[in-house]
Amino acid sequence: MAGPYDWLVQIPDHPNAQQSRMSNLPDHLNYNKPQIQAGQLVMSGPTLAAHSKSSDEMPTITGSMLLLRADSEEDVMQMVRENPYSKVGVWDLDKVVVTPFKCAVRTAL
User: Fold this and answer.
1) pLDDT digit string (tens) for 48-67?
2) How many CA atoms are closer than 13 Å to the CA of 10, on its beta-carbon side?
3) Cα separation of 4 and 45, whole Å?
4) Which residues of 5-25 are buried (b: 16+ CB within 10 A; e: fewer)?
5) Would you call 91 helix, strand, or coil by DSSP?
6) Distance (Å, rounded) from C-alpha 56 to C-alpha 59?
7) Cα–Cα distance, 15 to 75 (Å, whole number)
């Protein structure tokens, strides 16, 4: 079967990156829009140290998880490197884990 393929991508944040993450969130979201529209970015979100105990409590974000569709792991890493979170140093690119993935269930939001 030819690509594109599904890839599960786990990207930890650098320590103490939460303030930079929040201030660069608009650029990050704008960067993601064309990838979502093209069907390349299927799912994404922050990974947490723990779930908040109340709605007033801001969770500690530890990184990101993405489900990307691409032809190769190299294409996945190119998308990750071009993301604003990479360019401003939120994500620790030395610790990215890219795993081939077969998505069995897809539902729209």
Assistant:
1) 999 988 989 889 999 999 99
2) 8
3) 21
4) bbbbbebbbeeebbeebeebe
5) strand
6) 9
7) 26
Instruction: Count other Cβ atoms within 10 Å, centred on residue 97.
Output: 11
- Output the DSSP codes for 18-30: HHHHHHTHHHHHH
Q: Which amino acid type is present at position 4? A: P
Q: Are 85 and 91 in contact (CB under 8 A)?
A: yes
Is the pTM for the entire model greater than 0.70?
yes
6-55: pLDDT as tens digits: 999 999 999 999 999 999 999 999 999 999 999 999 999 999 999 988 98
Decide: 69 and 7 in contact? Cβ < 8 Å.
yes
Q: Are 7 and 98 in contact (CB under 8 A)?
A: yes
SS (H, E, C) 40-71: CEEEEEEEECCCCCCCCCCCCEEEEEEEEEEC
Q: How confident is the model at residue 106 (pLDDT cuts 50, 70, 90)?
A: confident
Q: By three-state DSSP, how is residue 105 classified?
A: coil
